[in-house]
Design a protein that fits this description.
The chain has 500 residues and is α/β, with parallel strands linked by helices. The protein has helices at residues 46-54, 76-81, 99-103, 117-130, 147-160, 177-192, 204-210, 233-240, 296-304, 326-331, 341-345, 352-357, 373-387, 403-416, 433-448, 460-466, 489-496; strands at 8-17, 20-30, 35-39, 61-66, 69-71, 84-87, 165-169, 196-200, 213-218, 221-227, 260-269, 273-281, 285-290, 311-316, 319-321, 334-337, 421-425, 452-456, 469-474, 477-483.
């Protein structure tokens, strides 16, 4: 028994990024020896709260109590000192050094002037045996281990730091069924030892199998905390959904959906894309929906030839093709707006005009390479008006614009190419509400002009408000096609969580 009720208690937590509220009056209480699920849609605020707890972010307001004592956590080092350890999907291990070195990496250059390698390996062996994984060789390099064993090394490293508050972020995302069973046995053993475990997962079957209580977030706000035994999957889903969509999405003029222009048939690529099929038609917005890590972006990259296609077929207007790169796709009339706007979508330190026209610069090039500057300026100004870029001077650099206007520049570049097939990956990420509505209006106008738009969005409300149909992904597989009449958050999340 402990002399405190909660290992972690967070009250009234607020956090904003550039005026956008990520957390508003959020709370979380986790008992020692409890497996506590933290749930919510993409963007609900789960990761932000965990980063506040670990010290990676500082809260704008609110209180944190560790073992009933009020604390301030200004950085991850202070978080570690308080016994808090977060294990993300991307492990913080050094792949080319040994298991023993990774477990005790904090001690290098501190406790030992001269390392006693034999003692280090012995201690690592004892630490691994104490959590039931003595078969892992401390001398092995981390990159030799399976993903499951790498995760065990991360947990072992956390426990040697005396962590008694452990956060697991989507810990089973890339594990086999057998490895999941091993991990769950370890988690239950840690629970018996009094470790407080915060468990983040979108997999409902895991939540009901292993957790004691569940806290649900929605849109950066606290919804409720419930006993897992008192819930069922549908009730839990209902806690996570429900928004007022009225007046947010502009109406689209009536148009008929046309011929199929792009088709993926049972494609596979790497570990993330296992069996994906979809059909995109002219005059429609087709949504790709699913939880983070479901393989949506990776599937598109495979179709475009950015990543190697290992199985399946791709058709462009009925003809089988095998694209070699995004440029190859671009030359064939398929334009791609990547998720990472600042690094891949625009050239921030170049003028707006050049960002718009460099995809079609040949139309402004005369004999001997002379540039028709007046024609280029006229075209860039027309595109500025067409997509609604708010700037007085197209010679200003793109980094002088707001995020929403930067995104419009990126879209203008795609439209300048005369591509009629547009693939937009998270087109409204990081932009304000006003800019989102303008981008939605632009997409609707393009569809009315018979463009075919494939839109990836982590926001279910956007899929519902903008798409004619949606393909839902789960674990690298396209598991469902939802028609417009049936597009609801409930239907999407049911497919995404494997309930359908």
């Amino acid at each position: 028994m402990t002399d405190y009720e909660y290992a972690v208690e967070m009250k009234g937590i607020y956090k904003s990024f550039e005026g956008v509220h990520a957390l508003q009056d959020v709370r979380l209480s986790v008992k020692p020896g409890e497996i506590h699920a933290l749930m919510g849609e993409n963007g609900a605020g789960k990761s932000t709260l965990i980063k506040v707890l670990s010290g990676a972010h500082s809260a704008d307001a609110g209180e944190i109590f560790i073992k009933d004592k009020k604390v301030e956590i200004n950085n991850t080092r202070e978080g570690n000192a308080l016994g808090i350890s977060v294990i993300y999907q991307e492990f913080a291990l050094v792949p080319h050094i040994s298991v023993a070195e990774n477990i005790f990496i904090d001690e290098f250059g501190t406790k030992y002037k001269r390392l006693d390698w034999k003692l280090l390996r012995k201690r690592a062996k004892e630490a691994l045996e104490s959590i039931g994984f003595g078969d892992i060789d401390p001398k092995s390099t981390v990159r030799e281990l399976s993903v499951a064993y790498q995760q065990v090394v991360e947990i072992c490293k956390a426990l040697t730091r005396n962590a008694d508050i452990l956060v697991l972020d989507e810990p089973t995302a890339v594990l086999t069924t057998k490895e999941v069973d091993q991990l769950f046995k370890l988690i239950k053993d840690l629970k018996e030892r009094g470790v407080a475990i915060i468990y983040i997962s979108h997999r409902l079957e895991e939540i009901f199998r292993i957790t004691d209580r569940i806290t649900v977030f929605k849109d950066g706000q606290y919804v409720d905390t419930v006993e897992t035994k008192d819930m069922d999957p549908k009730s839990l889903v209902n806690m996570m959904i429900g928004r007022d969509l009225s007046s947010f999405f502009p109406e689209r003029k009536e148009t008929e959906i046309g011929d199929m222009v792009l088709k993926a048939e049972h494609i596979s690529a790497g570990k993330m894309v296992k069996d994906v099929s979809f059909e995109l038609h002219a005059g429609e917005v087709l949504g790709l929906s699913g939880l983070v890590g479901a393989g949506r972006t990776e599937a598109v990259r495979a179709v475009l030839g950015v990543d190697k296609l290992t199985g399946g077929k791709v058709y462009l207007k009925g003809e089988e093709i095998r694209l070699k790169s995004a440029k190859d796709a671009f030359d064939k009339g398929i334009a791609f707006l990547p998720e990472d706007r600042k690094n891949q979508g625009v050239l921030l330190r170049m003028p707006i005009k050049y960002n718009i026209t460099f995809s079609c610069i040949k139309r402004f090039t005369a004999l001997f390479g002379w540039l028709k500057k007046r024609a280029e300026d006229k075209f860039a100004l027309e595109m500025r008006e067409s997509v609604g870029i708010k700037t007085n001077n197209i010679r200003n650099n793109v980094n002088s614009l707001s995020g929403g206007n930067q995104q419009k520049v990126a879209i203008a570049r795609l439209l300048a190419s005369d591509s009629k097939i547009l693939i937009l990956d998270e087109p409204t990420r990081g932009v304000d509400v006003g800019a989102k509505m303008e981008i939605f209006k632009l997409i609707n106008e393009l569809v009315y002009q018979n463009y075919a738009v494939l839109m990836i969005s982590s926001e279910m409300v956007e899929i519902i408000g903008m798409c004619d149909r949606a393909v839902v992904f789960k674990d690298g597989i396209s598991v469902g096609l939802v028609e417009k009449a049936d597009l609801t958050e409930e239907s999407l999340i049911h497919y995404a969580m494997g309930l359908q």
